[in-house]
Amino acid sequence: xxxxxxxxxxxxxxxxxxxxxxxxxxxxxxxxxxxxxxxxxxxxxxxxxxxxxxxxxxxxxxxxxxxxxxxxxxxxxxxxxxxxxxxxxxxxxxxxxxxxxxxxxxxxxxxxxxxxxxxxxxxxxxxxxxxxxxxxxxxxxxxxxxxxxxxxxxxxxxxxxxxxxxxxxxxxxxxxxxxxxxxxxxxxxxxxxxxxxxxxxxxxxxxxxxxxxxxxxxxxxxxxxxxxxxxxxxxxxxxxxxxxxxxxxxxxxxxxxxxxxxxxxxxxxxxxxxxxxxxxxxxxxxxxxxxxxxxxxxxxxxxxxxxxxxxxxxxxxxxxxxxxxxxxxxxxxxxxxxxxxxxxxxxxxxxxxxxxxxxxxxxxxxxxxxxxxxxxxxxxxxxxxxxxxxxxxxxxxxxxxxxxxxxxxxxxxxxxxxxxxxxxxxxxxxxxxxxxxxxxxxxxxxxxxxxxxxxxxxxxxxxxxxxxxxxxxxxxxxxxxxxxxxxxx
Length: 489
What we know:
This protein is mostly helical. It is 72% helix and 1% strand. It has helices at 3-44, 55-94, 106-136, 147-176, 180-185, 189-227, 237-256, 267-289, 292-326, 350-373, 389-404, 406-412, 433-466, 484-488, and strands at residues 334-335, 420-421. Strands 1-2 form a two-stranded parallel sheet. Helix 1 crosses helix 2 and helix 3 (106-136) runs antiparallel to helix 11.
């Protein structure tokens, strides 16, 4: 055998080992995410649905739960996709020839992007509809009952639904782009149908992020205020605790002896007042036990961090809007090659990359908080050990739509310079200047309005509470105001 043949075999063997290594790393990463998601879902599922007397229903719910776990793992992978790529690029820049990071290369990152795209399509188009119809199916009339009968009914319904959706996509594509080339591409299922359908879903996810993220950014301030101990001046915690205890004792006496009063009592209102006083007393005890550093430094620092992160996000988007007007390279675009380890994606180097990762995670958490805070999706909020199976499916679908749109959302707003890899950059609307420009302008305006309105109201309310002005004409803070009829009693 000649030397050239040995060289070809050596190259093929090296490529084979690289593919095997990338497959093992991807499998380990996904298995870790799958285990974490399975633990999370078991904390929210309703145990009664998995321990029923009917073994068939329990088996169906277990299968649906595994499908939901797979979908949630894909959603978590989509959230980590962009930060992992940014950090990997900085590591390759800092340690270009380190032996221990040879496994971290552009091929691995590009493969992860393709896998997330593939699994997102699979989960949204097949697995989650299958899980929902599977839990709702009972088998065809006259057929033998069992899990297989439910599977057959689910597959038939899913096939009919797929034909309906594909027909709608075919008609929409023909209307939007009516030429011979596009008409011929309509018959290509894998290369055209699925990317076009996922492009529509991703566009809806990006629009949902545009609405939910400003709401979540505003909501973050109020949630932080509830979780942390707030500093207050000119107040006496011991006095407030004694007043709360006396009020609770008086109300408890009136509830236990309703006949001692000549006038009829609103027992439901009294119970609500007692619960409010108990909650207030718990919060006062927590504030009394808090250290001086926690009480006077933790809350201001947390609020300052939220304000800086939100203001920095708006500033970056504003700069990106100016770049869109003067530089065509600022437009989001996709690339098929993973050119990592060549140049930093931030002008500030590694420090700027860390800021990008923090902002991406911050906006994702804010969007999820805004999603569950909106009145339209309030009923979808999961409850601890009390979430029905259909509700779990709905949550997994919504989280996957939000998370899979996060890379496109971050690149469209200019939060990172990393070009979208794989099929994420094939969306046609990413090349439309007017859509990208209006999207950036809408995000900057909505976030600024929510920030100004929420922050100014929160600061005004906290200043009033800090100086004790809220307790001057009113009883103990937090005590529910009763009606005139109850006050006369």
